Amino acid sequence: MNHEAVTVIGMGSMGRALAEAFRAAGHPTTVWNRSPAKAADLVARGAVRAETVADAIAASPLIVVCVLDHDAMYTTLAADEAALAGRTVVNLGSGSPEQAREAAVWAARLGAAYVDGAIMSTPPGIGRPESMLLYSGDAAAFARHVDTLRALGDPLDLGPDAGVASLYDTALLGVMWATLTGWLHGSAVVGADGVKAADFTPIANRWPAHAVTGFIGHYAAQVDAGAYPGDDATLDVHLATMDHLVHASRDRGVDTALPELYRAYTERAITAGHGADGYARVIEGLRG
């Protein structure tokens, strides 16, 4: 099997994990970092440390950049950006959809292909097939390099608009924080009555896995159609149970800001005359 050469620029914890995954999969891997010592362990295992950014770019047709943000990417590549012509830049740093689209224009001006990516994992998950990485941008370039990118995890192609991967990334992070904060709040509520988080968590995990994800799948069609029948539970019913959560939290000295936020969105929809609708109706208030 012919293993494509790849260059990884940026040796933070994530950059090192990316480079190691490529190397472990058999890809000739060149690495560069402003502080060369960060790549020492990778070099000891067979990666090649480039002395300069120009050397790093010259080494591979696929240039994977994993630095703090788009500004850091431009700064890192500025002196040698002309050498990117004919190569593919895959940016796995963070940024907004608008910044990703601007980067695609920048790369095109240089004669390079650009693919923006979002890593939906922490460094220990890199290289595992169940880890999800989102990509969007140059379709031909993605197709050309997807087998190489598969070394990092499951590569999901979100289409030719370079901004879509970042768009999904930011939205999915919101889902993550909402889920984690909801679990932390629930742990605080039950913990006030002496329940350990370790005992609460298996049930907390089962609830979204076997019920909440089903609600989401059901509500997605409603959100797209703009119709919200209260066929599972109406907003009036949801509001009553939210009141129980607010009261239980307050009685135990647990902060009520989170359930009060849920309640505020629900009350707004009810006040607008939608109490008989289902919970997906709340999106209309979120849309503004």
UniProtKB/TrEMBL annotation:
Give the NADPH-dependent reductive aminase-like C-terminal domain ranges: 161-287
Keywords recorded for this protein, A-Z: Oxidoreductase
Q: Does the keyword Oxidoreductase apply?
A: yes
Tell me the ranges covered by the 6-phosphogluconate dehydrogenase NADP-binding domain, including all copies. 6-154
A matching Pfam family: RedAm-like_C
Q: Which InterPro entries match?
A: 6PGD_dom2, 6PGDH_NADP-bd, HIBADH-related, HIBADH-related_NP60_sf, NAD(P)-bd_dom_sf, RedAm-like_C
A GO molecular function for this record? oxidoreductase activity
Q: Does the keyword Oxidoreductase apply?
A: yes
Q: Which family does it belong to?
A: Belongs to the HIBADH-related family.
Q: Indicate what this protein is called per its UniProt record.
A: 6-phosphogluconate dehydrogenase
Q: What taxonomic lineage is listed for the species of origin?
A: Bacteria, Bacillati, Actinomycetota, Actinomycetes, Kitasatosporales
